[in-house]
C-alpha cells in the first residue's frame, strides 16, 4: 500500500560570502519534512530576482534564458521524483538530487537504507525484531565511525572487505550492559540482517552488485 508523500521544488538565491550585490541561484527539493539544496549554474544581481515568483525579473535575453532553464530544472526534478516513486514509496530529497545527476545509489548511504527499511517493514515486523535492527544500525554506524572516521557510508561502496571488517568488529564487541563479547550466533544474526537490507537496495536498483556475493 502506498503512503502519501508531499513533494515540492522552490528556487532562491544565496548571498552568503558575497559583497558585490549578487546571489547564486539554488533549487530546494522538499519531500515531506526533509529538504536539500541544489546549486545551479547562474549568479545574478539580487535586484533582478523576484522572490515571490522565484524567477528573474525583466524580458532581457539573459532573463528569458535563466527562467527557461529554471522551468527545465523543475520539470526534470519532478520527473526524477516520479521515477523514484514508481519503484518505492520511500523517497528522500537526497535520492531525487542523486537521480537528477544520474548518480542514484552512489549518493544513498547507510542511514537512508535503514530509514527505508524501517518505514517499509514497520507493519510487518514485531517490536522486538525492529529493536534488533536498530541495535544493528547502532553497531554498523559505530563500525563506520571507527573504521572510516565518518558518520555514514555510501551503499554503493559496500563490498566483501566491508562485510568481513564488520563481522570482525562484531566478534570483538562487548554489547552495552554486558561483560561478555557478542556471541557467534548474535554476530551472524546482525550480518544476516545487513544482507537482507542489501537485497532491498538491489531490488530498488540503488546498487548494481551484491556485496555478499563472495561471502558464505
From TrEMBL:
Arm DNA-binding domain ranges (all copies): 25-97
Any matching Pfam family: Phage_int_SAM_5
Keyword terms, alphabetized: DNA-binding
Molecular-function GO term, any one: DNA binding
InterPro entries xref list: Arm-DNA-bind_5, DNA_brk_join_enz, Integrase_recombinase_N, SAM-like_dom
Residue ranges of every copy of the Phage integrase SAM-like domain listed in the record: 113-214
The protein's name in its UniProt record: Phage integrase SAM-like domain-containing protein
Amino acid at each position: 500500500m502506498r503512503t502519501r508523500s508531499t513533494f515540492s521544488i522552490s528556487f532562491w538565491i544565496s548571498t552568503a560570502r558575497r559583497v558585490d550585490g549578487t546571489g547564486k541561484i539554488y533549487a530546494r527539493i522538499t519531500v515531506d519534512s526533509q529538504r536539500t539544496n541544489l546549486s545551479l549554474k547562474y549568479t545574478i544581481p539580487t535586484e533582478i530576482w523576484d522572490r515571490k515568483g522565484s524567477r528573474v525579473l525583466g524580458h532581457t535575453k539573459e532573463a528569458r534564458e535563466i527562467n527557461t532553464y529554471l522551468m527545465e530544472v523543475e520539470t526534470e526534478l519532478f520527473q526524477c521524483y516520479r521515477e523514484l516513486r514508481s519503484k518505492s514509496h520511500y523517497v528522500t530529497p537526497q535520492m531525487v538530487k542523486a537521480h537528477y545527476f544520474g548518480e542514484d545509489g552512489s549518493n544513498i548511504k547507510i542511514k537512508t537504507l535503514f530509514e527505508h527499511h524501517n518505514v517499509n517493514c514497520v507493519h510487518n515486523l514485531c517490536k522486538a525484531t525492529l529493536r534488533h535492527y536498530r541495535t544493528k544500525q547502532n553497531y554498523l554506524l559505530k563500525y563506520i565511525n571507527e573504521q572510516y572516521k565518518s558518520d555514514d557510508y555510501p551503499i554503493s561502496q559496500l563490498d566483501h572487505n566491508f562485510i568481513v571488517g564488520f563481522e570482525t568488529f562484531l566478534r570483538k564487541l562487548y554489547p552495552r550492559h554486558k561483560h561478555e563479547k557478542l556471541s557467534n550466533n548474535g554476530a551472524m544474526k546482525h550480518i544476516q540482517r545487513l544482507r537482507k537490507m542489501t537485497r532491498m537496495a538491489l531490488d530498488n536498483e540503488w546498487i548494481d552488485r551484491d556485496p555478499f556475493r563472495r561471502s558464505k
